[in-house]
Amino acid sequence: MEAICKVAVVGGSGNLGQPITAALLKAAFQVTIITRAKSTTAHPSEVAVVRTRYDLPNLTRAFTSQDAVVCVVGLTGVAMQNTFIDAAEAAGVRRFIIDDFGWGPGMRNLPELDAIFAERLDCRDYAQAKAAANTTFTWTGIAFGSPIDRVLRWFPAMGFDVPSRKAIIHDDGTEPFTDQFVKIVPIKTCQRELLEAFLGAFEDEWEVQKSSAGTHVGDGREKVAGGDGSGARDITLAHIFDPD
Ligand SMILES: NC(=O)c1ccc[n+]([C@@H]2O[C@H](COP(=O)([O-])OP(=O)(O)OC[C@H]3O[C@@H](n4cnc5c(N)ncnc54)[C@H](OP(=O)(O)O)[C@@H]3O)[C@@H](O)[C@H]2O)c1
């Protein structure tokens, strides 16, 4: 296969899209960000941006002459990924990176997360079927589990509150968090190892609480049932840390 040089990133303005775009630029790919016609997101000035309606003819035009497409749209856009795949194939794109960026197939999960995983699985099956029927079209899923830097920032409940020097260790704190698919394992660690690292890095005392990740499922379900969307985070926390 000829080298991939031109890469379009759909959703390049997002939480993951920004670092992915920056890494592609650093690796000297010619990057184009594809953004929705009415989006107000900002993009680095040095990157080409194609603003377009997300339908098959327009996306096909946007992907024409690209070697690869990275699909990294936010959760609500995952459902339309099959249209991105159709457009990429029609435009002659040789490699499509599907919007997984999670745990990949085969991961145990809580029923609350079934719908999210089912949608991703559908896209993966769709890409797989396309590739089986057309040898010039290939796809890759990248799964890295829970990125540690994001987890630490996003969820104080993930265990570490650095400014207050407090830690909550769920269960025995040894559940590894990072994983699967085209398995990217830049760091594989667990709460206990991170706690050791924090204790080594700071001279202050840390207040360490014990917790059980499994109990967060009940709390999360109760919150969601009561209309409090933050319960989804409790459920995700249990998904990541509950060893059972
Ligand atoms: N493993 C993990 O822990 C982890 C953590 C975070 C995210 N993820 C996964 O990574 C992927 C990207 O997530 P993210 O948090 O980076 O996304 P995000 O920041 O919410 O959104 C990324 C971009 O997608 C575009 N977008 C948003 N809604 C869309 C829609 N309905 N239709 C089409 N495009 C839409 C927007 O770009 P424009 O406005 O420029 O069009 C947005 O800036 C998702 O699959 C997510 O589940 C995984």
Could you give the topology of this structure?
Blueprint: E1 6-10, H1 17-26, E2 30-36, E3 48-52, H2 56-63, E4 68-71, H3 81-91, E5 95-97, H4 114-133, E6 138-140, E7 142-143, H5 148-154, E8 160-161, E9 166-170, E10 182-183, H6 191-201, E11 207-211, H7 215-225, H8 231-241
Parallel strand pairs: 1-2, 1-4, 2-3, 4-5, 5-6, 7-10, 9-11
Antiparallel strand pairs: 8-9
Helix pairs in contact: 2-3, 3-4, 7-8
Bound molecules: NADP nicotinamide-adenine-dinucleotide phosphate.
Bound molecules: NADP nicotinamide-adenine-dinucleotide phosphate
Outline, from the CA principal axes? globular
Cα radius of gyration in angstroms? 20 Å
Topology pattern, helix = H, strand = E = EHEEHEHEHEEHEEEHEHH
**CATH architecture classification name of the largest domain:** 3-Layer(aba) Sandwich
Distance between the termini: 43 Å
Number of domains: 2
